Amino acid sequence: MKQNLMYIIFFLVTLSSKASFILLPMDEATQQNHLKAYGITYWCLSKDYKASWLLNYRGGSFLLPDADEIRKECKIRGVSFEILSDSEEIAILDEISSPSQNMESVILEKAPKIAVYTPKGKQPWDDAVTLVLTYAEIPFTPIYDEEVLSDQLLLYDWLHLHHEDFTGQYGKFYAAYKNTPWYIEQKKDAEALAERLGYAKVSQEKGAVAKKIRDFVIGGGFMFAMCSATDSFDISLTADGVDICEAMFDGDASESNYQSKLDYGNSFAFKNFTLERRPEQYEFSDIDMTTKRRITPDKDYFSLMEYSAKWDPIPSMLCQNHTQLVKGFMGQTTSFDQNLIKSNVLVMGTCELNGEARYIHGEKGKGMFTFFGGHDPEDYQHQVGDPPTVLDLHPNSPGYRLILNNVLFPAAKKKKLKT
Question: Which member of 41, 335, 336, 379 lies 3.0 to 4.6 Å from 356 by CB, making a disulfide possible if both were Cys?
Fold first, then answer.
């Protein structure tokens, strides 16, 4: 009898301790490849596995069910993982749920459908998001003006914009590159595309694209923009119906006194900005801080804000990282003047030395947008023609983690933002 009881107890103990979960730790000391861990989580969602994002627990770890194919995929991709028993998983969730802990477990429901706005033939290293999506093995679909204007954004949950110019000024590259073959060819291609799509000017065609993207967000889409796509997008919406382009860009002079005709109510994030009229100036407006900042590379860092994971899960997800201090990096649009950011927009990352905003987030209609200043988190001052960033050398990049936070957060079961 006693022997049978011992067998039963042993069986129950064995059952309760059996491995049932996989934890992808995201702290600095444990995870050997933070970037590919996002890819594993996305892959699990695409395979209809359940997943949870453990906000502020060991750097924003991911909890997955235990399955042989998940273990195998982690090993193939070089992602660190830990096997948890039922009791260990319960203990972690109990810790997270405690009111004394600024943590939360967020259920991830489905893999978002991702579109990247990029012209055909563009090199992957010209776009940090394309680069990291490829590295993390997260599938995406490249789209451009034809797809946007034919309402194909309705097929996607998440849209990325990078080093783009929605104002029709060809990135303000005129002074430095107007005589180079690539600039001449890009201008020619853009004009031909605009004409094919029924527009007299590139600026008008890009403005129509910007409004389609605006409607995508208002309807419930998620939009992430970096570098010049941030301010040029808002400028395009603000200057809707106003000619702000000089003759070298569109063949005729800009409207007189166009600054006074801007409608800041149309923009997503920025207000009261002043446009840069000089065509030879590599700048769109005073939104960007690139020419105003006086920070040496060794001191160029920005701090991530800390939010209540239980009450404000969305900004908490977007700021998950293994460090609160992120190395700065430059771009055509490096950062944003905080005085020109609308009051309903969250500033999630700031440089303490000059108060510039690096990372901002807001709502528009039923959707959301995030703007991230700079071009490439691991290339401090990217220049035209520079070689690609090799992400195998930066598998734990905090800056690239912020990009992937934005890729994954549309998968989360939403809670209403409180702040």
Answer: 335
